[in-house]
Amino acid sequence: MSVFEPSSENTREFRNALGRFGTGVTIITTAHEGRPVGITVNSFTSVSLDPALVLWAPAKASLRFNTFESATHYAIHVLDQSQTELACQFAKDAEKFDSCDWHWNDQGVPLIDKAVARFECERVSSHDGGDHAIVVGRVLRAANFGGEPLMFFGGEFGRFQGAA
Ligand SMILES: Cc1cc2nc3c(=O)[nH]c(=O)nc-3n(C[C@H](O)[C@H](O)[C@H](O)COP(=O)(O)O)c2cc1C
């Protein structure tokens, strides 16, 4: 155990401490110059029930930052436990749509057919968040498909196990 003040000298330890917070895993999709693009994200968080608002945090260092931070419409797919490989593929490559079934929605957003839940969003605002931005979206359509979620904890993918 170590107690420390986060600084530019110990970002790895800070990241490791943050990684003790288990999350689900999402792929966020949008269109860029008419082509479908995606990014794997675990900073997704619900914000408000009424109005229906959610947020996520794109890293400013990402090559995909401008595309995703400025997207007026996008979709957030909460991944199923069988989708580890897809999560890894979209972490590396924004254009991995040949690895999954998908279709366009009415707003021209690519929707991945398989997910445990999906939120089709319209961008509301973007806020400075240090080396990330905080993008808030209004949920235009939500879907709950059921199934078991993919989890991320301590830098590893895994499954959810309910308390016995
Ligand atoms: C489980 C997981 C969660 C991630 N969460 C985020 C996130 O919340 N925000 C973000 O900008 N990138 C996140 N990433 C990294 C992106 O998926 C992507 O790898 C990164 O933006 C590099 O993209 P680039 O090659 O376009 O620069 C995550 C990756 C993984 C594997």
Task: Write a structural description.
The chain is mostly beta strands and 164 residues long. It has a single domain, classed as Electron Transport, Fmn-binding Protein, Chain A (Pnp Oxidase, Chain A), CATH 2.30.110.10. It is 13% helix and 43% strand. It has three helices and twelve strands. The strands form three sheets. A seven-stranded antiparallel β-sheet has the order 3-2-6-9-10-5-4. A hairpin with a 5-residue loop joins strand 7 and strand 8. It is globular, with a radius of gyration of 16 Å. The structure holds flavin mononucleotide (FMN). The site of flavin mononucleotide (FMN) has 16 residues, from strand 3 and helix 3.
Short description:
By secondary structure, this protein is mostly beta strands.
How do the helices and strands follow one another from N- to C-terminus? HEEEEEHEHEEEEEE
Mean pLDDT: 97
Q: Which architecture name does CATH use?
A: Roll
Widest beta sheet: strand line-up:
3-2-6-9-10-5-4
Small molecules bound:
flavin mononucleotide
CATH fold-level label: Pnp Oxidase, Chain A
Question: How many domains comprise the coordinates?
Answer: 1
End-to-end gap:
28 Å
Give the helix/strand layout.
Elements lengths: L10 H8 L4 E2 L1 E7 L2 E7 L3 E4 L4 E4 L8 H5 L3 E6 L5 H9 L9 E3 L5 E3 L4 E13 L2 E13 L5 E4 L2 E4 L5
Antiparallel strand pairs: 1-11, 2-3, 2-6, 4-5, 5-10, 6-9, 7-8, 9-10, 11-12
Flavin mononucleotide binds next to strand 3 and helix 3.
Key descriptive features of the protein:
seven-stranded antiparallel β-sheet, 43% strand, single chain, mainly beta, binds flavin mononucleotide, three-stranded antiparallel β-sheet, 13% helix, Pnp Oxidase, Chain A, globular, 164 residues
